[in-house]
């Protein structure tokens, strides 16, 4: 009798563990990739009807890739590790240099420059206002002024994390010091980002995979806009939104917040505007029941279930034989 009770207890514990695995598989995840402080004001004013935002990871390249003079569209850089030195020509033709280290971010206007990094350098970069489908770097002639190196021995290598096309013009600015924060956001089907919220920072997002639907509105009504892979989005600071994955596959989004007040939380809970078609906050906190069991993907949860049931069967069978 005691062995039967022990078997039931073990099966129950395994079942709870398996259920926990399902719950974890259904939860959205936000991963901070890099955060750094920008000294001084920043200003973004993109007037194009459509343009791309591009998010890159940049590391040291001993072969010297990127170690020549080039230019980019307006971009923002956070040094996640190591250090990076950049040379820029001035109005008099002479070059000045500045070194940025881990935890620092900066705004780099469109223009010619050259840079080199320490062997352990890792940068996260956001390019804004990029022509749709256009390159983020262009080779330029080397300036001949004082302190302008013709070429650097060690360059940097760029890897694209995500790229998305944003429809419409947008503006963002900071009058003093602020922060840049780049994140990776993954949302399972049916799940949301814990209801309505806003941010004190401007948000630039590029949809890497799947889709997300973003609701905005007021006490009269809410509108929804869905982004799919290859599309981008700009959300102004302090705009209340509700984000949910209404598709059938996991959503993967790279998001960068700019002009974030130093030390501020990137998320501030907001009230439901209350208009027609505005999702309910309570319903937003929990994924829909259909996503409690994975429909596509979710191999980890299925594996946990299989292992749990197999172990439970082995335990019960062993106890039965001992009877």
Could you characterize the architecture of this molecule?
This protein has helices at 2-25, 281-284, 299-322, and strands at residues 29-38, 42-46, 50-61, 70-72, 75-81, 83-89, 95-101, 104-108, 111-117, 122-130, 138-139, 155-167, 170-174, 178-187, 197-198, 202-209, 211-217, 222-228, 232-235, 242-244, 251-260, 268-269. The termini are close together. The protein is built from 3 helices and 22 strands. It folds into 3 domains: 2-21 and 299-322; 28-33 and 173-291, Sandwich (Jelly Rolls); 39-167, Sandwich (Jelly Rolls).
Write the layout of secondary structure elements.
Elements: H1 2-25, E1 29-38, E2 42-46, E3 50-61, E4 70-72, E5 75-81, E6 83-89, E7 95-101, E8 104-108, E9 111-117, E10 122-130, E11 138-139, E12 155-167, E13 170-174, E14 178-187, E15 197-198, E16 202-209, E17 211-217, E18 222-228, E19 232-235, E20 242-244, E21 251-260, E22 268-269, H2 281-284, H3 299-322
Parallel strand pairs: 1-8
Antiparallel strand pairs: 1-14, 2-13, 3-10, 3-12, 4-9, 4-11, 5-8, 5-10, 6-7, 6-9, 14-21, 15-22, 16-19, 16-21, 17-18, 17-20
Question: What's the short version?
Answer:
The protein has 323 residues and is of the alpha+beta class. It contains three helices and 22 strands. The longest helix is centred in the N-terminal third of the chain and has 24 residues.
Beta-strand segment tally: 22
Strand content range:
35-45%
Assigned CATH architecture of the largest domain: Sandwich
- Tell me the Rg in angstroms: 25 Å
What is the N-to-C order of secondary-structure elements (H for helix, E for strand)?
HEEEEEEEEEEEEEEEEEEEEEEHH
Number of helices: 3
Q: State the strand order across the main sheet.
A: 12-3-10-5-8-1-14-21-16-19
Cα-to-Cα separation, first versus last residue:
9 Å
Structural class: alpha+beta
Biggest sheet layout: 10 strands, mixed
CATH topology of the largest domain: Jelly Rolls
Poorly predicted regions: 6-25, 283-312, 319-323
| CATH homolog superfamily of the largest domain | Jelly Rolls
Domains, number: 3
The chain-level mean pLDDT equals 84
The amount of helix comes to 10-25%
What is the 3D shape?
A: elongated
The CATH class of the largest domain is Mainly Beta
């Amino acid at each position: 009798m005691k062995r039967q009770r022990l078997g039931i207890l073990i099966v129950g514990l395994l079942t709870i563990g398996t259920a926990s695995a399902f719950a974890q598989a259904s939860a959205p995840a936000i991963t901070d990739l890099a955060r750094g402080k920008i000294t001084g004001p920043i200003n973004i004013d993109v007037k194009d009807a459509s343009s791309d935002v591009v998010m890159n990871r940049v590391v040291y390249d001993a072969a010297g890739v990127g170690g020549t003079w080039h230019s980019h569209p307006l971009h923002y850089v956070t040094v996640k590790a190591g250090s990076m030195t950049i040379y820029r020509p001035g109005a008099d033709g002479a070059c000045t240099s500045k070194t940025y280290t881990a935890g620092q971010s900066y705004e780099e206007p469109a223009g010619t420059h050259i840079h080199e990094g320490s062997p352990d350098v890792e940068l996260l970069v956001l390019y804004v206002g990029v022509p749709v489908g256009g390159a983020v770097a262009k080779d330029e002639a080397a300036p001949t002024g004082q302190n302008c190196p013709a070429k650097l021995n060690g360059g940097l290598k760029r890897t694209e994390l995500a790229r998305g096309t944003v429809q419409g013009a947008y503006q963002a600015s900071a009058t003093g010091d602020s922060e840049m924060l780049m994140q990776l956001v993954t949302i399972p089907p049916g799940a949301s980002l814990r209801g309505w919220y806003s941010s004190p920072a401007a948000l630039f997002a590029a949809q890497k995979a799947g889709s997300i639907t973003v609701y905005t509105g007021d006490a009269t009504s809410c509108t929804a806009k869905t982004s799919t892979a290859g599309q981008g989005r700009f959300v102004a600071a302090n705009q209340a939104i509700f984000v949910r994955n209404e598709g059938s596959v996991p959503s993967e989004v790279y998001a960068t917040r700019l002009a974030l007040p130093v030390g501020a939380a990137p998320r501030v809970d907001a009230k439901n505007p209350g208009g027609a078609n505005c999702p309910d906050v309570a319903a937003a906190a929990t994924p829909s029941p259909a996503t409690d069991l994975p429909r596509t993907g979710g191999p980890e949860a299925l594996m946990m279930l299989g292992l749990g049931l197999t172990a439970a069967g082995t335990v019960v069978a062993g106890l039965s034989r001992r009877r």
